[in-house]
Design goal:
The chain has six helices and ten strands; from the N terminus they run E-H-E-E-E-H-E-E-E-H-E-H-E-H-E-H. The chain is of the alpha/beta class. The protein has a single domain, classed as Nucleoside phosphorylase domain (Rossmann fold), CATH 3.40.50. It has a five-stranded mixed β-barrel with strand order 5-9-8-6-10, surrounded by five helices. Helix 1 packs parallel to helix 6 and helix 2 runs parallel beside helix 5. The radius of gyration is 16 Å and the shape is globular.
């Protein structure tokens, strides 16, 4: 069986940006997911859109792992900045992923701790090493922590709380769930986000305006991996 690198997006704009860099792709449907099988840079890829949220993301990751000989999985998309040094369009390479809304503190555990797997999921070191060497003009690229949860973060107080609790650089809704599925299946992964908005009680407007740019930046970035 041919090995493939899996790419998971959540939104249409993210899917289309990656599709635009793929060559010779064919489309199949598996369990209702549209999956493109193609290539770029002499590597074989499978691309799909999970939909928004952790359950959709986890389901999609497991389908790719089950149906393809998956070398590793890349999750790309947009995110809200938690680190004030990040600007719209900047890229965060997630060395660590955490589910900021997972809460069993009532049983004496830290916020984000998941029984049997721990608090943080770590991206593959070899892929991180390769990604750290990528340079794109006018785009700030940082390696840090990405926090995921089933809420689109708009509240400034929530932003500050997630930043303080997890030392997270950005927040989104899928990455840590994909990381957990990959961890349980012993499949390498990397989560890459481009900043589309900054939580400020009204950042859904910025998200709509900048998601295409963020998606394009992510697609350009993974074209070098």
């Amino acid at each position: 069986m041919i090995k493939h690198i899996g790419i998971i997006t959540a939104e249409d704009e993210e899917f289309e940006a990656v599709k635009n860099i793929m060559k010779k792709h064919e489309e199949i449907i598996i369990h209702g997911l549209k999956i493109l099988i193609g290539e770029f840079n002499n590597k074989n890829y499978v691309l799909t859109k999970s939909g928004v949220g952790k359950v959709n993301a986890a389901r999609t990751a497991q389908i790719l792992i089950d149906k393809f000989d998956t070398e590793y999985i890349i999750n790309v998309g947009s995110a809200g900045a938690l680190d004030d040094k990040l600007n719209i369009g900047d890229i965060v390479i997630g060395s660590k992923l955490v589910q900021h809304d997972f809460d069993v503190t009532a049983f004496g555990r830290e916020k984000g701790y998941i029984s049997g797997v721990g608090k943080f999921f770590e991206s593959d070191l070899e892929i991180i090493k390769k990604a750290k060497g990528i340079k794109i003009n006018d785009i700030n690229i940082v390696v840090g922590t990405i926090a995921s949860g089933d809420i689109f973060c708009t509240d400034v107080k929530m932003k500050e709380k997630i930043r303080k609790e997890f030392n997270a650089d950005c927040v989104e809704m899928e990455g840590a769930a994909i990381a957990q599925v990959c961890f349980l299946n012993k499949v390498p992964f990397i989560i890459i986000r481009s900043i589309s908005d900054i939580p400020n009680n009204n950042n859904q407007i910025n998200f709509k305006n900048y998601i295409k740019m963020a998606s394009k930046n992510c697609a350009e970035f993974i074209s070098y991996i």
